[in-house]
Amino acid sequence: MSKYDLEIIGSGPCGYVAGIRTAQLGAKACIIEKDKLGGTCLNYGCIPTKALIFSAGLFDISKSLDNFGILVDNVRPDFEKMQKRKKEVVDRLRSGIEFLLRQRKVEVRFGNAELIEKNSVKVGKDIIEAKYCLIAAGSMPAEIKSLPFDKRNILSSTELLELDKVPKSLIIIGGGVIGCEFASLFNLLGSKVTIVEMMNQLLPTEDTEIARVLEVSFRKRGIEIFLGRTATKTELASEKTLICVGRSPATSALGLEKLGIKLNKGFIAVDEDYRTNLDGIFAAGDVIGRNLLAHVASKEGIAVAENLFGKGFKVNYNAIPNCIYTKPEIASIGLTQKKAEASSISVEIRKFRFQSLGKSHILGETEGFIKLVVEKSSDKVLGCQIIGPHATDIIGEMCLGIEIGITSERMASVIHAHPTFSEIIGEVAEMVHGKGIHTI
Ligand code: FAD
């Protein structure tokens, strides 16, 4: 008999969360990790980037402290200290995951996992067997053949995060989410930043108007942007170059070909319940290439565990928030106007500016707006896009609204505390029926 109910390859937000949920449901899980607990998200992605972005944001605010009646002299960034703090945050959170897994009696083995037979995984000299297997091996930075990573000047996001000093100049190839976040971060820290994006808009999958506002804001702050351009090696006249043109699945060391596990454009092909073509083997998170986000990976991990050992669970892919931690921040969920119209859904669009909120003036952050996409026939809120202060927190309420299928009328009836940024949701919802208060 197998020692484990579920063996999980990878301890990122998909794998470790699936392990915890499996244990909560009374089944026995084992996680195999070849690198550090917590995966890309904790070690090379969400957490370290946002720790540095927060430090850089504080430095930016510190330059205007006299506007708030605070006089400080000689404010300057200490990048080494920022990096040290980032590492402390990551280490603390990693210990937290370690503790949770230990408490739940989820076993963790370190080493490269290779599937050798259905549900037999080789780790070093050991063979680990389980009733089921979940591949949560994640993704890694995609390379451009003509501009291969050299770990010195041409870097991936992983290496850029480890720099010991702020580069004087930085070219970023790829103006997607990761590229724009790094552009914002290093611009705030004083680098001369250039973005080269192949498409005609930054953040090609975001709402066009929002992407345009970010572009204008970036240009105003001195970021050079080339759209509709592909970079060549001879053009890279900067101290560092970041290549961030997407992510590739981390599948090469898993032994998938030998077992005949089907792929879809390199990512593992799964059905709606994350089953691969081999019975008992599942895959979820970045490695299936659906939505490359930590919160999606975690929910997919939960779904796999719940479907195997609990009551079952379906991820609602219509209610997935996308957050971009640039300055100004961006957050969106559900349909944009363009996507709704492409699906022949007739929608009302309403927009409310941060400029009209009390809280924005208190904090001195008045840039940006919220946009609500509402279905005309049903009044149902189908989507929301925000650019402006604390957008990535404000979107939380919209996640709940869209998840429960809220109408704009019901949303307008919610009482928001004053003065808060969340008031912007009530204000824009009131506008749908022509009853906006702080707007004309
Ligand atoms: P991963 O986190 O990649 O974990 C997979 C794990 O599997 C890794 O630890 C790997 O070592 C291990 N593994 C792989 N192969 C094997 C093997 N053969 N044997 C054993 N172990 C193996 N998402 C957000 O939602 N918000 C953000 O703000 C955000 N910021 C990001 C910033 C950057 C710079 C990057 C690169 C990504 C960011 N992401 C963000 C994306 C997020 O990190 C991923 O979506 C998420 O980590 C995917 O989780 P996962 O568990 O599927 O895979």
Bound molecules: flavin-adenine dinucleotide
Mean pLDDT: 96
Question: Termini, distance in Å?
Answer: 70 Å
- In percent, how helical is the residue content? 25-40%
Overall geometry comes to globular
Summarize the main sheet.
Answer: 7 strands, mixed
* Count of β-strands: 21
Range of strand content: 15-25%
The parts where pLDDT drops under 50 for at least 5 residues are none
Oligomeric state as shown: single chain
Count of individual helical segments:
14
Radius of gyration: 23 Å
Based on secondary structure, the structural category is: alpha/beta
For the structure shown, list the relevant keywords.
alpha/beta; 14 helices; 21 strands; 440 residues
Can you characterise this structure?
The protein is an alpha/beta fold and 440 residues long. It contains 14 helices and 21 strands. It has helices at 13-24, 39-44, 46-62, 79-103, 157-160, 177-188, 208-220, 256-259, 294-309, 337-342, 358-363, 391-403, 408-413, 423-432; strands spanning 4-9, 29-33, 107-110, 113-117, 120-123, 126-135, 139-141, 154-155, 169-173, 192-197, 224-227, 240-243, 247-249, 263-264, 267-268, 281-283, 322-324, 330-334, 347-353, 369-375, 381-387. β1 (4-9), α1 (13-24) and β2 form a beta-alpha-beta unit. The model has no long low-confidence stretch (mean pLDDT 96). Flavin-adenine dinucleotide binds at residues 9-15, 32-35, 39-41, 44-46, 49, 112-113, 136-139, 157, 178, 250, 253-254, 285-287, 292-295, 297.
